[in-house]
Amino acid sequence: MSEQSKKEPLAFRYDSDLCFPHNSLWNPDKRNSLDLKGDKEVWKMFRSGDDEAFGYIYMKYANLLFKFGLQYIKEREILKDCIQDVFISLKKNRRNLTSDVLSIKSYLYKAMYRQVMERIKKEKRQYIDLSIVNSQGFDISISEESRLISEEYLRERIKQIKSALGKLSKKQKQAILHYYYDGLTHQEIAYVMEMKNKSSARKLIYRALHEIRENVSKKTRSISLILTILLVSLLFHLFS
Amino acid sequence: MNFSGLFIYKGAILLHGKQLLKQQIKGERMKYKNYSVDDFLKDDFFVRWVKAPDQQSNKFWDKWLASHPEKTETLLHAKQIILSFKYTHTGELLDEEYAEIFENILKDQPEKPLLLYQIRNQLKSSFTKKLVAAAALVLIISGALLWQYMQNKLTVKDSVQQANYITKTNPKGIKSTLKLSDGSSVRLNAETSIYFPEKFSDSQRVVYLKGEAYFEVAEDNRRPFTVVSGDVETTVLGTEFNVSAYPGENEVKIAVAEGRVKVNEKTSGKDPAFSYILLPYEMATLRFDRQEFKKTRLESAEIFGWKEGIIHFQKASFEEVVTLLERWYGVKFMVGDQKKTMEGKFTGKFENQTLKEVLEAVSFSWEFSFEIKNKVVTIK
């Protein structure tokens, strides 16, 4: 038997479910089964050395981390480096990682946050120019897809909310996005944003909502004030 | 102040919503009766349901709405507001970047950084240690050079090169192109892996394929080029052809665009069970379950279309359409009981179109509605 046939990868035989150790995105059935499993289970599999679970985590979260990182850093290449480092250290330390994660998403967000901060610090030391930093990070947009927002009332309301959103602090905006867009829980938000506990996160969001409402109602009040003035002057005009 | 205290109390109940659901169900329903849009926005149980509905919460809100139809509008407004929040600064990794980062992650060897780290620490500690480190570095470098030299010598002697193998894997939704060491180029389709040596040996060029790829092989009469896919070997000297060998599809298809291709069973020394020659615009279809071989003539170049971003459905069943779209766009389809009613075949051609555009056409002929969210397509 020649040397080469011994080296032949078993993974390329259809009858075998052996895979390359790193050929992790491969098996579609397995991926579907991972989709059905909860975070805890996938995390456990990954920690015990399952490469498909690792590939699955990358596949599911790489783009999310990119978007998350964009809130801090504008430079694409640096973000790519950061994502790479997050996953490399994840892979390297898999056996020492905590078994108790709130969720994989929040764990990775936090890891990415640390990586990004470290990177910014490094860049600061090397260059004075900080054009890579995104100072408008975590700005909120409101999607106005026609199907989503069909009614006039809602459209008007969203317009008001939109202008009110601009007045929030960066932290408030971040918490709002994590809560309503990313679907993180209060506890996960507290973890990612390095706050004391989940009630701090909850308070942050409530205060933001409160401010939005204040701003929106102030606007409505001023509109109704204008309307009243118009009406009064009209009446005055008519009867004079 | 009072106000926020009230909200915290509310939140505390709702966080245990799931466990308390049964006991609290009456109280909860009562409570939501007077909720405004803002109240809903603050309600964790509600937000959870909007963001990640499960059976339990669906049941709860269905029932609740049924008994409070007058609140439908308020609830829907709150839901729409939640769903309309999004990031202003958004972007995605390009397919190539996505694949490139993953490659780099997999390539990373844990030993290397450790060594650098150690050396750096030594350099930091003291001058004598610096000397030791320098000496070690010299040793390592000369060792590496010597090793490389020996390797080179060995490869000259031995025609079966102990090459470094490389694996390229495209997940669903990603296509890529790569160049091999002999100048051949390979266009890899989505959900495809290829395994090849960093440098080909002097006597042959062998690559292993799982999935679909289009090969443009650089001509080299001394070294035949072989694609191994499962039990099938496709051998050429220099030509263009397509191999489609997805596991689970139970068949391998080889289509030739240019030149001559030989297809045979992969054996180790024995006579192969089958061996055929294919000419341009001929396609071989090998079915493993039925041990069947078929040679067909291609009427058009549509089988090669995928590499230019063209999707071609020719009397495709619903399952075939779903399989291809999942692979092509890297999405997942959620199809309920509707599957049974999706009869008939679909024929159509799409050139570099978005998933939404394709689905609009497909849904028209099978009469379903769909929703695309977070890379999941729900068929309704």
Automatic annotation (TrEMBL), chain A:
Keywords: Membrane, Sigma factor, Transcription, Transcription regulation, Transmembrane, Transmembrane helix. This is Sigma-70 family RNA polymerase sigma factor. Coiled coil: none annotated. InterPro entries: RNA_pol_sigma-70-like (IPR039425), RNA_pol_sigma-70_dom (IPR014284), RNA_pol_sigma70_r2 (IPR007627), RNA_pol_sigma70_r4_t2 (IPR013249), RNA_pol_sigma_r2 (IPR013325), RNA_pol_sigma_r3/r4-like (IPR013324), WH-like_DNA-bd_sf (IPR036388). Residues 160-209 form the RNA polymerase sigma factor 70 region 4 type domain. It comes from the Bacteria. The chain crosses the membrane at residues 222-239. Pfam families: Sigma70_r2, Sigma70_r4_2. The keyword Membrane applies. Belongs to the sigma-70 factor family. ECF subfamily. Residues 57-125 form the RNA polymerase sigma-70 region domain.
